[in-house]
Amino acid sequence: MPSHSLPPGLHPDTLAQRVAMERSQYGENSEALYLTSGYVQPSAQTSARRFGGEEEGYTYGRSGNPTVSSFEMRLAAMEGSEAALATSSGMSSIMLMLFSLLKAGDHVLYSQSMFGSTLKLIGSEFARFGVESTAVSQTDLAAWKAAMRPNTQLLFAETPTNPLTEVCDIQALADLAHNAGALLAVDNCFATPALQRPMQMGADIVMHSGTKYLDGQGRVMAGALCASESIMTGKCLPVMKNSGMVLSPFNAWVVLKGLETLDIRMRAQSARAHALALWLEQQPAVERVHYPGLASHPQHALAMKQMSHIGGAIVSFDLKAANAEQARSRAFHVLDSLRVLSLCTNLGDTKTLLTHPASTSHGKLAEAQRQAAGIGQGLIRVAVGLEHVGDMQDDLLRGLDTL
Ligand SMILES: *Cc1c(COP(=O)(O)O)cnc(C)c1O
């Protein structure tokens, strides 16, 4: 489907406002929301040609929708990929990718510190269908190399990771994958294309939870994959049409509008996160702060190089404690003392959200898996929003000062 004819060479911030489907005959300035599950066909002949793939045109909501197309085109432009496919959630975009690219007997190599549901989906659910997998240390390139097998088809990394903000070298992983004839997929949820564009560093597929920063105000679930035309149209689109994990047009419209403010939100929220991280490092009750923008972050230099010299908007910190039980009760105390910020399992909102990963996002992992991912009982994740930093500090002090 054609975009209205924009001149070439526009900058990413312009693309984020302007790339979309052509305006309708009414000339609306804000992109139209097409809530329809079917499309009236102009003739039986045209209908046959559209269903046969010989002519472009919408047929049925599971196969495409103009509002969803606008979101896909805009996200692809922002990531610098040829194409994108929107899905109903971040996890369904991973489902779509695995279903489309793998078969029984194939091997996936992935980071052991990925999002909890990603670990479960690859390590448990897909294992039932004979897809082999190995989880390796996110930051140890030698471990990724050593775990490669002749049947390795896909490398999958998340950088920075949730919740410890571990960073991996995208270019090095892309080289490793390509030398073995495999593909590299990157979960770009934390950095977003405003800060990091993995395809420019060699990644083949970029995966998004649109639920997070792309929406940006915690309203809807959404997901997406970005990749070459041959991967998207050739491999993923047929699976998509038959499996139905499509994004609703309403949610696509919300996320499409979210993309317009992504860049300024990411910069403003990251600046607040950086200030909060520096302050947390000074707090006596805090053992350690995890934030890519801090000089103390183990991959600080690499993170700055890959992420436009900005650390992102997620800060995690470990509380000092004598043992796991005390760590958990201290973390619960800090969270239960909040009066302004939200105790809420989401991220990417303009409202600051705090979580206890060990009992929520990573709660269903076996203790060994959780340990390997480095998620202790005293760990708190702060997804920093747009409130005043002084008010964030005061709200955290309610708990920290009374430990
Ligand atoms: C939330 C999240 C996902 C899953 O996305 P949903 O939209 O919740 O399905 C995947 N990866 C990361 C890094 C996330 O934070």
Spatial shape: globular
CATH superfamily of the largest domain: Type I PLP-dependent aspartate aminotransferase-like (Major domain)
User: What distance separates the N and C termini?
Assistant: 58 Å
Q: What's the helix count?
A: 15
How does the major sheet shape up? 7 strands, mixed
Structural class: alpha/beta
Order of strands, widest sheet: 1-7-6-5-4-2-3
Number of domains: 2
Helix content: 25-40%
Please specify the SSE layout and strand pairing:
Layout (H helix, E strand, L loop, with lengths): L11 H7 L25 H8 L14 H14 L3 E5 L2 H12 L5 E5 L4 H10 L6 E5 L4 H6 L5 E7 L11 H10 L3 E5 L4 H4 L9 E5 L13 E5 L1 H15 L5 H11 L2 H20 L4 E5 L9 H7 L7 E6 L4 H13 L5 E2 L9 E3 L11 H6 L6 E5 L5 H12 L3
Parallel strand pairs: 2-3, 2-4, 4-5, 5-6, 10-11
Antiparallel strand pairs: 1-7, 6-7, 8-9, 9-12, 11-12
Helix pairs in contact: 1-3, 3-10, 4-5, 4-9, 13-15
Bound molecules: pyridoxal-5'-phosphate (PLP).
Pyridoxal-5'-phosphate binds next to helix 4.
Structure overview:
This protein has 403 residues and is an alpha/beta fold. The chain has two domains: 12-259, Aspartate Aminotransferase, domain 2 (3-Layer(aba) Sandwich); 262-400, Aspartate Aminotransferase, domain 1 (Alpha-Beta Complex), CATH 3.90.1150.10. It is built from 15 helices and twelve strands. It has helices at 12-18, 44-51, 66-79, 90-101, 116-125, 141-146, 170-179, 192-195, 229-243, 249-259, 262-281, 300-306, 324-336, 367-372, 389-400, and strands at residues 83-87, 107-111, 132-136, 152-158, 183-187, 205-209, 223-227, 286-290, 314-319, 342-343, 353-355, 379-383. The strands form two sheets. A seven-stranded mixed β-sheet has the order 1-7-6-5-4-2-3, sandwiched between helices. A five-stranded mixed β-sheet has the order 8-9-12-11-10. Strand 5 (183-187), helix 8 and strand 6 (205-209) form a beta-alpha-beta unit. Helix 1 (12-18) runs antiparallel to helix 3 and helix 4 (90-101) crosses helix 9. It is globular and about 75 Å long. The protein binds pyridoxal-5'-phosphate (PLP). The site of pyridoxal-5'-phosphate (PLP) has 14 residues, from helix 4.
